[in-house]
Amino acid sequence: MEDLPLSKAVIRRDMRSRRRALPASKRQQAAEAVTRQLASLALWQRARRIAVYHANDGEIDPTPLVRDLRRAGKTPYLPIIQTDSSLRFAAWEADQPLIDNRFGIPEPGGKSLPASALDIILLPLVAWDLRGNRLGMGGGFYDRALESAADVIKMGLAYDCQQLPALPSQPWDVPLDFVVTESALYQCQGHT
Predict the structure, then answer these.
(1) CB proximity list for 61: less than 8 A, separation 6 or greater
(2) Is 73 annotated as a binding residue?
(3) pTM, whole model, 2 decimals?
(4) I want to staple 15 with a disulfide (CB 3.0 to 4.6 A). Which of 54, 127, 154, 160 is the partner?
(5) Could you give the 3-state DSSP secondary structure of residue 191?
(6) Is 11 annotated as a binding residue?
(7) For ATP, which residues are the binding ones (predicted)?
């Protein structure tokens, strides 16, 4: 029988390499394409509280989305890793200084909200499948935050090359509702 943690580790290593190998121009084009795809969605237009993230390690960069949100009078939210390793979200104002957390990821200060207070959460990912399984960096921060946020729309942002036919999953893994890539918007089928 295959060792599941090793399997995830191998997938994570290979897919991160694949993502980092994309030229900067391809990454920028993908970020713009994802922005266009989301702008046309009614659920995106209705949402008021949308969590984004700071791109790292070749992830789809949500910066164009942040610009669009602000133009529409909406405030984006960023994740904040708490001292107990839980994940909460704080509003990110345009001129607000950010402070690097213990992982070097910029975070806003101020009042934070639980995931359940948001309308949509955009999630970075390393790999994904059509059932909504998402492989992240391995910390489990999003899964723990989302386990009590069933009504929040969970959208992964990814490159087409990050899709796999199937990913290993655990009972505590929270599936995505949608994945948005440079070429399509996928409504995930959920865990069966």
Answers:
(1) 27, 28, 31, 55
(2) no
(3) 0.91
(4) 127
(5) coil
(6) yes
(7) 8-12, 134-142
Residue type, 192: T
In the predicted structure, residue 1 carries a pLDDT above the cut 60? no
Q: In what order do the strands lie in the sheet with 49-51?
A: 112-113, 87-91, 75-81, 49-51, 120-123, 153-157, 178-180, 185-187
Token readout for 150 is 């069933």
- Backbone angles phi and psi of 58, in degrees to 5: 85, 5
Alpha helices in the chain (DSSP H): 4-20, 24-39, 42-46, 63-71, 141-146
Angstrom distance (rounded) from CA 59 to CA 126: 8
Is 8 annotated as a binding-site member? yes
What domains are defined for the chain? 8-187 (3.40.50.10420)
Do the annotations mark residue 137 as ligand-binding? yes
Q: Tell whether residue 138 is among the known ligand binding residues.
A: yes
Q: Is 142 annotated as a binding residue?
A: yes
Q: What is the pLDDT of residues 6-50, one digit of tens each?
A: 588 899 999 999 999 999 999 999 999 999 999 999 999 999 999
19 labelled ligand-binding: no
* 63 Cα distance to chain centroid: 13
